[in-house]
Design brief:
Largest sheet: none
Structural class: mainly alpha
Number of domains: 3
């Protein structure tokens, strides 16, 4: 179990084979199959054992002002987030959401319970009239603060994990925005630059001319994209792609060179296909416009193909970290123009990189909806978009 856990949490389910587990544990595959039905059963039991190990009693509340206490909570959450085992569990939660829905739900609830200290504290503040819950619950607000602190899916998508100093600064930023909204942020906010995104055609790796007609080439790319989205890079089958398209193996290799080049090409193509130019929505004032923008971003985030891209790129980020970062940058970039216009209307400064990322994290509820397999109805989308806009422009209150 120890070796299996190390591999599953470091490399994920798809990229961990029974052969590798047996070799690392210095046992035969027969020994493993005598104890577990299959790889799925082993993975399920490994993750559940880690959940049991991770259960703990509530910790004493920090001392200080509301801001200081929330910063302490946020800092602890970030430190826990980057712990290798916790990070591996969180990544597993995202990747297995479709294939292990029951386990994904348990992982999701485990993470929510791990934030019960801050949720209890926020509920106490709300009961005392010190903060407003903004049509939400203390648990959901605590989850939103945690999501802003760790910046949603960013560190699962090719970005290096932050240093302790960076984590502390991000915790302070998240709490300031959470309590007072954008008006409470310092002018000249110091933040890590946001990598640029520009839609551009991916480059073909092959040197021979492509003999396929454009429609056949598109068919090949679409079949390859579906295969990778369904199975991931390691277990995707070129044979299935060829069978779906009727295109010869030699033609594919002549153009792309190898499986990895095909993978990179179709992912780049899919990222650009998901790009949208977003306009400032109609609405009655800045907060209503921002609420509608958050709803539009959430709707895009919840499109099935976007969810599948998240699962694939979180799973295979180590293979194509640059494309994982490109996928993240695309989502932030499409928010920039309309968000900046709304802030200008509200007499607020243009958003710095961290503010743009925070807006995206709040609009999409961090990784909640890509880590949980349940369906999200229109009423919940509307409620959560309103909460996101309220936090951004007004905060929940406090000092």
């Amino acid at each position: 179990m120890v070796e299996a856990a190390a591999l599953f949490l470091r490399d994920g389910f798809e990229r961990t084979s029974i052969d590798r587990i047996a070799a690392n544990a210095h046992v035969s595959k027969q020994v493993i199959y005598a104890l577990f039905q299959d790889k799925e059963d082993l993975f399920d039991k490994v993750v559940r054992s880690r959940l049991e190990q991770g259960r703990s009693d509530p910790q004493p509340q920090p001392e200080g002002s509301v801001r200081q206490i929330l910063e302490a909570y946020a800092g602890d959450q970030f430190d826990g987030f980057v712990d290798p085992d916790n990070f591996g569990l969180f990544r597993a939660n995202i990747v297995v959401a479709r294939t292990f829905p029951a386990l994904a739900s348990e992982l999701h609830e485990f993470r929510r319970r791990s934030g019960r200290n801050v949720a209890d504290y926020l509920q106490t503040l709300a009961d005392d009239g010190q903060i407003a819950l903004l049509s939400s619950t203390a648990t959901n607000l605590g989850t939103r603060l945690g999501g802003m602190t760790v910046e949603g899916s960013r560190f699962f998508l090719g970005h290096a994990q932050p240093t302790p100093t960076q984590r502390a600064a991000q915790a302070r930023f998240a709490v300031a925005l959470f309590l007072g909204g954008l008006r409470d942020l310092p002018v000249g906010e110091d933040a890590e630059p946001q990598p640029p995104y520009t839609p551009e055609p991916p480059q073909l790796a092959g040197t021979a001319s492509m003999r396929l007609k454009p429609e056949r080439f598109d068919l090949l790319c679409e079949a390859a994209t579906d295969e990778f989205l369904d199975h991931g890079f390691e277990t995707a089958s070129l044979d299935r792609i060829l069978a779906a398209t009727g295109i010869g193996r030699s033609t594919v290799y002549r153009q792309f060179g190898d499986k990895l080049s095909l993978f990179r090409y179709v992912l780049h193509r899919e990222i650009d296909a998901q790009w949208r130019e977003l306009a400032v929505p109609d609405g009655d004032g800045p907060e209503d416009r921002l609420r509608r923008l958050c709803r539009e971003v959430l709707d895009l985030h919840l499109e099935p193909r976007t969810i599948r891209m998240h699962h694939l790129l979180v799973q295979d980020c180590s293979i194509v970290p640059d494309l994982a970062r490109r996928f993240y940058a695309m989502q932030i970039e499409r928010l920039k123009q309309p968000f900046s216009r709304i802030l200008e209307e509200a007499s607020l400064a243009p958003p710095a990189p961290a503010t743009l990322r925070a807006c995206h994290t709040l609009a999409t509820f961090a990784v909640r909806y890509i880590a949980s397999p349940r369906l999200i109805d229109a009423e919940e989308r509307a409620t959560e978009s309103g909460t996101a806009a309220g936090i951004l422009l007004r905060g929940v209150g406090g000092g």
